[in-house]
Amino acid sequence: MGYAVLRQKEKIMKKKFTAIDLLVYAIIAVPIVYLALNYAAMPATIPIHFGFHGADGYGEKAQSWVFITMISVVSFMMYVFLKYLPSIDPKRTAASSDSLVFKISILIVVFLSLIQVLIINAMLGHLFSIEKILIPVMGIFFSLLGNLMLNMKPNYFVGIRLPWTLESEDNWRKTHHLAGKLWFAGGLFAAILGLLLPYQYALICFLALVSVMVIIPVVFSYRYFKNQQIK
Questions:
Q1: pTM attached to this predicted model
Q2: Total domain count for the chain?
């Protein structure tokens, strides 16, 4: 048994560099290339912080490199971590959702790269894009993530990891089925509100929706756990 587990770990660690990896790394590099192409046209002072009313903090344009590079590094590290997640999982739970975790990693990379492009546009003075597209993009991200959660199997790394969901496969399945449907619908609703409402109101609604989308599955999971104990 120990030999078989060791061979499986070696197999996972020796995952080959694929065309998909190349595509993902290209997507990660897009914001850096986009910034390089537009850096000369960027004003000396750029927005570096965005609040309820749009840009409310400014700095030198050289800071754009620090900001974009940091997010790109985080995106790269997240992708690599999730790709090799099964090899560092001591209980091999992540292996059962290997394909799903891989899809989540790609979704995160695309989302972060798109957000960076929107931020660069804002730094160039195109505030319309970030104020009208940011909330819809985040809403679609939550919606797609919710769709993936519907088939997520128990693991210690991704999902709604609570003591009672990790303890019971049935609790995990029911909680993620509810959360998946809730996040899918809530994300779409947030995206629509982002297109229809002014940015500050759309942001408030988005934060409220995210709170509901997180709290309801947690409460449901705990109540399900308590009901099972009674039985």
A1: 0.78
A2: 2
